[in-house]
Design goal:
The chain has one domain (2-76). It is an alpha+beta fold. The chain contains three helices and two strands.
């Protein structure tokens, strides 16, 4: 259920990201206990630019709020 919630949210965001020439994907590594991890890796250097881990999310979580830093890094390509 939570993975579907995340996929729906990501699909809504993808058009905006595509307009900025940014590709993003959501994937699950045996999504357990509603944990959520975000990372941004520079494709050329493989440098980890951003990483955030949240212990618990659910369908009431404001994903726009908890991902604001993530999208800022995606758009700027710089560490915060």
């Amino acid at each position: 259920m939570i993975l579907l919630f995340l996929r729906d949210w990501a699909d809504r965001k993808s058009a905006k990201l595509n307009n900025l020439s940014i590709s993003s994907e959501i994937f699950s590594r045996e999504f357990k206990d509603d944990k959520f991890e975000m990372e941004v890796v520079h494709i050329g250097t493989e440098e980890l630019i951003y990483w955030k881990y949240l212990e618990k999310i659910d369908s009431n979580t404001d994903l726009d709020e908890i991902t604001s830093d993530y999208f800022q890094v995606l758009q700027r390509g710089l560490k915060l």
